[in-house]
Amino acid sequence: MPKKFSNNFMITHFFNPPRYMRLLEMVPDEEVDKKTVESITKFSDIKLGKEVIICKDTPGFIGNRIGIFWVQCAIHEAIKAGLTVEEADAVMGRPIGVPKTGVFGLMDVVGIDLIPHISISMLANLSKEDEYCKIHNEAKTMKSMLENMIEEGYTGRKGKGGFYRLNKEDGKKIKEARNIETGEYAPANRKVRMRSIRAAKKGLGKLVNHEDKGGQYAWKVLSQTLSYAASLVPEISDSIVDIDNAMKSGYMWKRGPFEMIDQLSAAKFVQKLDDEKRDVPKILKDIGEGEFYDCVKGTRKQFGVDGEYSDIVKPEGYLNVEDIKIKNKPIAKNPSASIWDMGDRIALLEFHSKMNSIDPMTIEMIEKASRIVNGNDFDGLVIGNDGTHFSAGANIGLALFVANVGLWSEMDRFIAGGQQAFMSLKHGNFPVVGAPSGLAIGGGCEVLLACDAVQAHAETYSGLVEVGVGLVPAWGGCKEMISRWKDSSEKGPMGGITRVFQNIGTAKVSTSALEAYDLKILRENDDVTMNRERVLFDAKKKCIELAQDYKMPEMGEYNLAGKSGKVALDMAVDDLVRSGKATPYDKVVTEKLTEVLTGGDTDPTETIDDGTLLDLEKRAIIALAKNEGTADRIEHMMEKGKPLRN
Fold it and tell me: How many CA atoms lie within 13 A of 485 on its CB side?
């Protein structure tokens, strides 16, 4: 190609769907100026939110070279072992740190008809001695099965179905799984039970060394996949970090191949390969008794092709809680949350309970963080974590337990403690910046509403969803939404309150951080970060800026509609119930919600304060918690993962 063109030419490979998949593999031409590469990399990183990995120009680059091998190997070994698709996915999913779709479910998502096209490309460009080619040529049953499925229109979710399909019986959708041998469908086994899967909770080694068919399958697939990845160094990349990051960002693996080998122990992994008289890649021989990743004096290091360790250098502006943990001990910690020193006189409050849900120990740590920062040891506080989700809200299982045994004094203490903790965030003498990503719903959303500012990841999904489990927001969510909407331009005497009622009453959740502005969960002084790896860094920067000239927010004052407004909102719900768009228990819940939103026993001429609204929230949620309809909703949500329409 002409030099003028080649000087500005590079291959870019986005993973699909680009909005959600972070990996961008980039292959610059040798003639491309380094500044041009840096410019495109920076744009893709900061503006598009991508994890940019510079690759060598080899078939499949990094992600698909390893990923397609893994898929092919997993399907082939499942057929050889006589496993069902549900059994294979149950092993080749969460137990190894892969999304729950596993491998067969993944094929349904990406499209089964893509496999032959990828195979043709790989076979045409790889040596016949490559392990991919060897498995492909051996897997004749797999090839004929896929060909038959494609011919019949079973190409995955975009077709009539794939390895799974949704079928309707008596108006209900039933998930069915395909029998690999016969091609027939039957209701999917949603609860595959194997001892190896339970053992995996104690580590990857427990899974691959287990004697049952799940353990044997896991070893067959992982031993081949991890060995293959190791054999590709330095062909596809000189950096094990880039290989691991490509698999984590492109295939959503929790750990990359070399991180998995470290977890298994490279020496033990090699010993088992030797015992089975299998080839051992050079880099696995070179590592010996060591690990591919090491940490020396707070600096993470990677093992290189030269047999030496080198520092792992992240792009400027990348920051994770894990980076802070390597160099520091927590200021305070309990099983649900920790407080860390971020440097530059900014503290970090990290949630780390299951789904980062909020329980009494979380609240205890919120209050402790407020006291520590108020004590002038720090200038500000950031609330964030490395989890997939910022917070899924209050621990509803705990609420159900308290309700079932009638410990109403404990419920009162839990709600009041949360209100006090959240008010300490909002009215402390220091700025608080929320740094959410993923779900920030229910109590998690209320945390953000209590912050002075929010630095949200673009993929933040936030809203007050308590009505779905028969409750109402009670940690200041109603109060904050009233405050944010009271001066809105919505038409009518209760325009703003009507919007608050609609959003909370329908459990409206933003589909992105940008939509959160429309819901007034985010405000003008809040910002959005495209790259998940930059959220904490940007939040810290914002917190430092706010601390320069910080003024504590004033307490709120409200003039609400009172009983007349409540009647109007309740009548609207009555109409929805009559038309079948709302359920009888929706009416019970929203009647408590409207009482809060209209100020209870007040009228527009009377001014009420934050304390009054918080009392109304607490009374409403405790009254609902005592109702069996709410218990039914919570139990259903915990069992089925979706709201009960009672």
Answer: 29
pLDDT digits (tens, 9 = 90+) for 531-589: 999 999 999 999 999 999 999 999 999 999 999 999 999 999 999 999 999 999 999 99
DSSP 13-68: EEPSSTTT--EEEEEE-TTS-HHHHHHHHHHHHHTT--EEEE--S-TTTTHHHHHH
Q: What are phi and psi of 554, to 5 degrees?
A: -80, 155
Structure tokens at 392: 């899924």
Quote the Cα angle for 48-535-385, to 5°. 135
Q: Which domains does the chain have, with CATH numbers?
A: 3-54 (no CATH), 63-163+189-309 (1.10.1040.50), 321-465+509-553 (3.90.226.10), 558-640 (no CATH)
CA distance 300 to 293: 7
- Contact between 233 and 240 (Cβ < 8 Å): yes
**How is residue 205 written in tokens?**
């080694």
pTM of model > 0.70: yes
259-277 per-position pLDDT tens digit: 999 999 999 999 999 999 9
Q: How many CA atoms lie within 13 A of 157 on its CB side?
A: 9
